[in-house]
Every structure is written in C-alpha cells, then in structure tokens.
Write a structure and sequence with these properties.
Helix 3 packs parallel to helix 5, helix 9 packs across helix 13 and helix 11 runs parallel beside helix 13. The protein contains 23 helices and 20 strands. The strands form 4 sheets. Strands 3-2-4-5-7-6 form a 6-stranded parallel beta sheet, with helices on both faces. A 6-stranded parallel beta sheet has the order 11-10-9-12-13-14, with helices on both faces. A 6-stranded parallel beta sheet has the order 16-15-17-18-20-19, with helices on both faces. The termini are far apart. It is α/β, with parallel strands linked by helices.
Length: 554
C-alpha cells in the first residue's frame, strides 16, 4: 500500500518503540507533524530546539531506549547541535529528524536551506562528528536502506545519535509501506569476555587490600546487584566514578564514595595509602575521576580492567589483566569462580583505620568553610533521606552532590557529564520524567545555567510534568569566579551578574517557589512541599565568595 514518506517516518518511530518526540515545528517539517497528529507518538513542544535534544537525551538515559527530537531546517537544526553532541559523548540513542528545503531549489538560495549546495550551510558536515550516522535523504529509492542503517546505529552494541534530514518535497512523496520490511532491529547480545576470568580471580586472591572502581558501564550493564554481591561476600571496598554514584549504596559499610577531583577526597586517600589492587569495571578513568591522571592513584598497584569496549582497554593505563566483555557477565563469572574456590573475605583493618583517621582529619579546612556550604550539604542529606529510592536527579552543578549526596542503589543520579553543557538539567529531567512518570524528579543547576534553559519550565507547565528545579543562587558563574580567584589573582571579569526575582519568575510561570536561606527553611521544604506531584522552583542562597578547594583548571 502506498503511503507518504512523512507517514512512513512516523511508523518508523513507532517500530523503534518511540512514544514521545520533542521538538518545535517549522514549515519544512509540517508534513511529518501532520502525520504525528493521529499517531501513537506524543509530540512535546519545547521552547528552544536545544531543549528538545536534551529532553530526548534525558529520556534515553532513564529508559535505555531510543528517543527522538525534531526541528525544522536551518536554525532549527543548528539549535539541536549541542544536545546531539552531548548525546554522542554519552552514547545515547537519540534520533534527530530535521526538515530541509525541497530538492529542486537546492543551491538556489532557498529560505533556511542547509543542503551544502551553492554556498548554503552544510548541515551534514556540521553533524558529521557528533552522530553515528547522518543522511540527507534526497530521494526515496534507497529509503529502506537509510532507515535500516539508522536503526543499526541507534540500537547497536555501541549506540549513538542519528540525524535524518528530509527535504520538504521528499516528505510528501509516496512510497510502498513494504519499505519498513527492509529494517532489521539488532538484538544486543552480551559481549563475551576474551580473557580468562581465572587471571582476574588470581589477582584478587593474591591481593590484601583490593578496591573495585565502578564506572557507568556497571549501570549500563545492569550490574549493580552483582557488583554489590561481589563486594559484600569478599569485603572489597567500592569507589565509583561520578556517573556511577549509587552502583553500591553510598554510606554503606563498603562504599568509599565517589572518586574524583571535585569529591571530598576520601576515596582518593584510601586508594593512594592502602590499595594494592584496583579492579576497574566499566570506568574510563577520565580527567575528573583520575585527578588529572595523578600517577599516585595507580602507582605500586596491580591493575585489572573490564570493559565492553575494547578501545577502552589500555587507553589510559596499562592493565595487568584486561577483559573485554559485558560487565554483568564478567562479574557473575568472577563471583562464581571465587565462590567455587572458597576465597576468604579480605580483612577490613585498613578500611576501619582509614575511617577513624578520616573523622579526625575532615576535608574542610575550618568550621567557617564548612558553614559556607551548610545549606548545600543539608539539602543533599535531606534529599537522600526523604527519597531513598526511585528519585531521578539531574545535576549540572555536580560539585556539591559529589561530596554531599549519598546516592542509594535504588536512586538514579545523572550528572552533567558528556560535554558538560550548561542549560542541560531542566530539559533532560523533563525528558526523563516523560518516561518515568511516577518518579520524583530534580533538576539541580547554578543560576547561570538556569538562565540558559529556564524557559523550558513552561514546557513542564504546559504538559503538567511534575518537576523540582533547584537553583543555586549566588549571582555568579561559580566555576569561572573560583578559577579567577585561585589562578588569576582575583582579576574578576564577566563572572558576576544580577539575577531576576525568582519568586516573581515562579509566579509568572504559575509554579511554587521556595527560597532557602536557613536549615529551618530546608526542614519546612521537605516537610511541607509536594516534591512529587507539582512543579517547584527552589532557590538555595550561597555566598559567591565561598569556593570549594579543588582546582579545576591545569
């Protein structure tokens, strides 16, 4: 049966399992929007196309399924670019659909043309380095192959974003609906390990004070329970990367907390002073985690590395044992091997002594410094107690959460990693809440980043999507001011600004507002506010002259 290309695209979305598409209509994508009208795919109108890409990314992060965004030609497409770049860095399966001018005016100066012809911008070239696959579809005779290639890129073992740009006239052409039969949806088979589990087991048997360094790969593989079982049965402490907070419940006896330059340093000290074996499970050991690749973290230790991506093995350091495989499968086999060998649990004398010493030498240099961040510490401690499971936390700030937020193994913490773009948390949280409809959802960001994306709060209002937006209000770009304080002789430039009245702004949005200036206000917030079913703007006051101690630039 003949149908329009625009209808075929909508059916393609449905076959991919996509039930929401985030975007903004324009003349060059109206044929697709018209077919969305009667489909099972719900369109969500955003305030800026960058927000659409971030929303799709947030949806993909929580669902582990493909998500979609849509924009018109020219500026609509280019506005997607930052969000698609973030999805590429995070390996998120985000399908971006954009319009284009009709093929018969390519190169003739069509409005918003981005075909690359006749001096027009080349949209494909712009997106080439931040997509797994991109295609300007100029005709229909190869449409099936294009859609199949897109599905492979979205659903393959190493997923990532895809861009399909479809000219206006092509959207209106007819094709046979059997084109959809050319699309094959790959199954994600577990990558079997290519090195002996026995070698890794032998390293663990010989070690006195091993530590598991758990990365985001553990979460992607659904391996939280297996990693926790391995740690618990054999008394192996666990530290995580920032993205992997909560692989094991933070605050539990074997958790060392988060490893990273913006953390409180507890895990770092234990690794440097006591560990004799590090077992990296799906952790890339990037700049933040590695303390700028500090040699002391790995010095004098045996190293084992497990990752599903062979390119990660040995990329930063030379492991003594390297295993390419699915993290969960490797951890299960390792656990079974160690149980069969009846390996005794490790002693925890070093860990106990480390914890006693940590109580006597807290990271904060004095009471005044600790007082500066008491509201942030108080907020995160209350958040952990009030929502011990099922919460979604999207965090653009990360500095305070890394040290103060004990993420349980049943919560979901999403730091702004990827390309670390400001303006990410609010739209990403909205996208995630579209999938996890009953989960209390928080977007945490500074006041500078908030003003890049605050208009997307109206998207939440328009669709009745419950959301808590937590703004750290200190009237400055904190990272820039801190660096200018620490590294540039307090020569402050272009970091300070005046904020709007957040209470009036919340009133104009029609959402609840809470201003936090004291511990009592925090208690009242968590005791009285509806943090699950409404939209709230929560501002926490912070002194712009108070800086965390870490150095963030080299």
């Amino acid at each position: 049966m003949n149908i329009s290309v625009s209808e075929l695209i909508v059916r393609y979305l449905e076959r991919l399992g996509i039930d929401h598409i985030f975007g903004m209509p324009g003349a060059h994508v109206l044929p697709i929007y018209d077919r969305l009208h009667d489909s099972g795919v719900k369109s969500v109108l955003v305030k800026h196309e960058q927000g659409a890409a971030f929303m799709a990314g947030g949806y993909a992060r929580i669902s582990h399924q493909p998500a979609a965004c849509i924009a018109t030609a020219g500026p609509g497409a280019t506005n997607l670019l930052t969000g698609i770049a973030n999805a590429y860095a995070e390996r998120l399966p985000v399908l971006a659909i954009t319009g284009e001018t009709s093929t018969y005016i390519f190169g003739r100066g069509g409005l918003q043309e981005s075909s690359g012809e006749g001096g027009a911008i080349d949209q494909g070239a712009l997106f080439a380095s931040v997509t797994r696959y991109h295609k300007l579809i100029e005709r229909t005779d190869y449409l099936g192959q294009v859609l199949n290639q897109a599905a492979q890129a979205l659903l393959g073992r190493e997923p990532g974003p895809v861009l399909l740009s479809i000219p206006y006239n092509v959207q209106k052409e007819s094709v046979d609906d059997s084109v959809l039969d050319q699309i094959h949806f790959p199954r994600k088979a577990a990558v079997r390990h290519t090195a002996s589990i026995a070698e890794l087991a032998e390293l663990l048997r010989a070690a006195h004070t091993p530590v598991i360094v758990a990365g985001y790969g553990c979460i992607q593989a659904g391996a939280r329970d297996v990693v926790a079982a391995l740690a618990t049965q054999f008394n192996i402490p666990v530290t995580t990367s920032l993205k992997a907070k909560g692989v094991v419940a933070e605050g539990s006896p074997l958790s060392l907390g988060c490893l990273g330059v913006t953390s409180n340093g507890d895990a770092y000290r234990y690794l440097v002073d006591h560990a004799d074996l590090l077992v990296f499970l799906g952790a890339s050991f990037n700049e933040r985690t590695s303390y700028l690749w500090d040699a002391k973290l790995l010095g004098g230790k045996k190293i084992a590395q497990v990752d599903r991506d062979a390119a990660q093995l040995g990329r930063v350091f030379q492991p003594d044992v390297a295993i390419c495989g699915d993290i969960r499968a490797v951890a299960e086999d390792l656990l079974a091997t160690l149980r069969a060998d009846a390996m005794p649990p490790k002693t925890l004398d070093r860990l106990d002594g480390h914890r006693r010493a940590a109580v006597l030498t807290a990271d904060e240099p004095d009471a005044a410094s600790a007082q500066s961040f008491r509201l942030m510490q108080g907020f995160f401690s209350r958040l952990a107690r009030h929502f011990p499971h099922n919460a979604l936390v999207f965090d653009d700030n990360i500095v305070f959460a890394q040290s103060y937020f004990d993420v349980s193994d049943r919560n979901h913490y999403f730091p702004n990693s990827g390309i670390s773009s400001l303006g990410h948390a609010i739209p990403a949280a909205i996208g995630a809440r579209c999938f996890a409809k009953d989960s209390p959802t928080f977007a945490i960001l500074g006041d500078g980043g908030f003003q890049m994306c605050c208009m997307e709060m109206m998207t939440a209002v328009n669709y009745g999507i419950p959301l808590n937006v937590v703004v750290i209000n200190n009237g400055t770009l904190s990272l820039i001011r801190k660096n200018q304080f620490q590294l540039y002789g307090e020569r402050y430039i272009d970091c300070d600004f005046t904020n709007p009245d957040f209470g009036l702004l919340a009133q104009s949005f029609g959402v609840h507002h809470y201003r936090i200036e004291s511990e009592a206000a925090l208690d009242a917030l968590f005791a009285n506010a509806d943090l699950t079913g409404t939209i709230n703007l929560i501002e926490i006051l912070l002194d712009k002259h108070a800086f965390p101690r870490y150095l963030s630039a080299r």
